[in-house]
Amino acid sequence: MLICYIDSYRRVSKEFSLAIILNPVAGKGRAERLCNELIQVLRRRKLPFHLEKTRYPGHATELANKLSKEFEVLISAGGDGTLNEITNGLINRNTLVAILPVGSGNDLNKVIGMPKRVNTMLDIILNKKTKLIDIGKVKLFNSDGYKIERKFLNFLGIGLDAEIAREMQTIKYVKGLPAYIISAIKSFIKYEALNYKIVINRRIIKEKAMFIYTANGCFEGGGFRLAPDAKLTDGKLNFKLIRSMGFFRTIALLPKFINGNIGKEENISVCSKGNMFKIIPDKPTIIHIDGEVISDHATLIEIDIAKEKLKIISP
Predict the structure, then answer these.
(1) Parallel, antiparallel, or unpaired: how do β-strands 18-22 and 73-78 relate?
(2) In the chain, where the domains are located
(3) Helix (H) or strand (E) run with residue 33 in it
(4) 42-88 pLDDT, tens digit each
(5) CB-based contacts of 18, cutoff 8 Å, min separation 6
(6) 4-128: what fold?
(7) C-alpha torsion angle, residues 165, 57, 20, 43 (rounded to 10)
(8) CATH fold for the domain made of 136-306
């Protein structure tokens, strides 16, 4: 029998073993408040749990690496970035992951559908109904020769999309869709489009692009429905390239970015679906995964689907 410790230091079996990985700064402090509500409910129901708080970038990956060996369920109490770190740290493929949606965007959860009411969320966790969702993989090479390999669940963005993700980290008092729009306007003013060579399922494309993204989920930026036909379980990623446009043209198209109709603008976008992509910019570029910038000088980006799936608890 596997033994674990809970907050009161009693011992329990792994029949139901739950650990919470909390990013206390997620959602501009809202994460800790909602997590405390969850903890109170767990105590009232006399359910065992273990709590760990992240202290620095990448810490959730380290915690998931350790806790997935001991606990049946990991709760990601944070945003898309926290969930991404947990996914990158999982050792045990049988570990179940649940989302406590307390980040600024919570874009993946817009598809998964976990509620913010902690009593209802806990009932869903105890039911242990899961989806097996795809995991994207990226391998990139920087201009200094350094290689980075990471997994992602929702979005990978290159160019202006990644600049917006970086700018959003500086927005303190606004969150979600409004923060994304403010960041987009500020980033657009200083961003320069690049030329790209792209290989999609052995087809070569050469385009000057404002930004490129590959999507596993539908939403990005706190509610932009950038990939309405993406599915988390189809074994493929949606690819979109947005050609270079002027500022006012971009602003005029914002409603189409929000409601998911940008793909119908054939004169400004290239759309495809596949499970393997190679992207080569003519200058080092910036890239984010699930809202977190991982490089600002990438020279070669290779994207595909991981063999393993993520077991995520869903309603």
Answers:
(1) parallel
(2) 4-128, 136-306
(3) helix 30-44
(4) 999 999 999 999 999 999 999 999 999 999 999 999 999 999 999 99
(5) 42, 47, 48, 49, 50, 71, 72, 73, 74, 75, 125
(6) Rossmann fold (3.40.50)
(7) -100
(8) Tumour Suppressor Smad4 (2.60.200)
